[in-house]
Amino acid sequence: MSGIAGMKVSTRLALGVGSLIAAGVVIAATAVVQMNSMSTGLRELTDERMVKVAQFTEFKDNLATVARHVRNVIISNDPAVQETEKKRIAELRAADNQLLAELDRTLVVPQSRELLKRIQDHRGPYNAALDEAMATAMGGWKTEAGALLTTRVLPRQNILFKAVEDSRALQKTLSEELTANTVKAMQQAIAIMVALAVLMAVIGVGVGWAISRHLRRALGAEPGELATVVGLVAEGDLSSRPALQAGDSSSAMAAVARMQEALTRMVSGVRQSADGVATASAQIAQGNQDLSGRTEQQASALEQTSATMEQLNATVRQNADSARQANQLALSASGVAERGGEVVGRVVDTMKGINDSSRRIADIISVIDGIAFQTNILALNAAVEAARAGEQGRGFAVVAGEVRNLAQRSAEAAREIKSLITASVERVEQGSELVGQAGETMTEVVRAIQRVTDIVGEISSASQEQSSGVAQVGEAITQMDQATQQNAALVEESAAAAESLRVQARQMVQAVSVFHLEADGVRGG
């Protein structure tokens, strides 16, 4: 029963109906078999036995008619009547031939075959005796013909008629037996079908009881009670609780009870959510109104900021132009300073050359001074030697004196030139130092100008970037202005949506109010 309890309702109904159908099919099959048997018997009774009885009856009637026509031929003296009767006799004999041929083809029972053979054996002599009597009568021998009928025809006729009657009686007996068998089979079929019908009724009652029992367990209540509870739930009445049987947790009524509890929790939650949505939508609507006002203020501020940024952009463009001009001037000054530095460098190089030349001249003067000193000593020595020589050396002494004078004057001149060259070298060294310092100063100036040029270039680049940035900021502010206007439109749409949400929340609350909960009854009480 646990297997049946776990089946679906459709499976149970299918099993119940299937069992009833199976019983019906068995009854129908039995009825068909019995009906076929009875049909076969009736067909044999009607198509064979009764037909054969009729055929033997017809054959006997034809024999009697032939005998009558033969008597008419014997009695009549009219040749035309005799010919007519003979013709009729021939037709009846032909019909009997066909009947015998048909019986010979259809008879299968040995006793019937034996009786048919007797008929065929006695029919020939019987017809020959009739023909002889007719020929005797037609020859004018009426009395002899009558005697033949009595002595030869009648005994043969009795034997033949007896065989025909026995055959007809046998077929009738077989028909009665077949009828009795058919009736018996019909009674058996009726008994079997009644028994099967009773069995089918018992099975139907048992299956119906089992299905009803399982359906009662599956539903948990009567269908009317379940329909009432479901109808109340459909109308929104969740306050009543269905009565469940002890331990019932899997029936439809138990499922409805669980559904009712779930619906109660859900409806309570939906009510709370709807109330919360209504409150939140009202707050959203108020917040959207505040946001709309702030968005309008922001849009106004952005418009002012956009105008200020346009002015700032113009100022930055002017600064960028001035920075480019300053950069160009700084580049020019840097070029001039570089060229001045080059000139100072060449002057330093020239001063170095002059200083070197002055030093070489001083060295040469020192050499001349040394030569003058040596010449003076030589002249002095020559004067001494001339004084020793006396008169011979007087002229040489004069020359030595002149040479000494020239040497002294040369030494003095060399000393003066040396002092001048020394002073000049000192001045040249001082000039070289000053020129070097001027070169270093010019180098530092060039470097400073280059740094100024770099700084002015950076200022120019920064000014251009600043101008580009200010332009981008202006565009961004314009986009922010557009976005703010769009936000304002969205805020209006959001306000409309919040209002719609509030209306829908109120409608949801009204829709959920259709459900009646136990808490509602408590509050109402």
Topology:
Elements lengths: L1 H4 L3 H67 L3 H28 L3 H29 L3 H78 L3 H12 L17 H138 L4 H119 L5 H7 L1
Helix pairs in contact: 2-3, 2-4, 2-5, 3-4, 4-5, 6-7, 7-8
Subcellular location: Membrane
GO molecular function: transmembrane signaling receptor activity
Protein name: Methyl-accepting chemotaxis protein
Descriptive keywords:
Helix Hairpins; 525 residues; 9 helices; 92% helix; mainly alpha; 2 domains
How would you describe this protein?
By secondary structure, the chain is mostly helical. The chain folds into two domains: 2-219; 259-524, Methyl-accepting chemotaxis protein (Helix Hairpins, Orthogonal Bundle). It has nine helices and no strands. Helix 2 runs parallel beside helix 4. The longest helix has 138 residues, at 252-389. The model has no long low-confidence stretch (mean pLDDT 78).
Into which percent range does the helicity of residues fall? over 70%
The overall strand count is 0
Low-confidence parts: none
Question: Under the CATH scheme, which class of the largest domain?
Answer: Mainly Alpha
| Oligomeric category | single chain
Calculate the terminal CA-CA distance, rounded to whole Å. Answer: 48 Å
Briefly characterize the structure.
GO terms for molecular function: transmembrane signaling receptor activity. The protein is mostly helical.
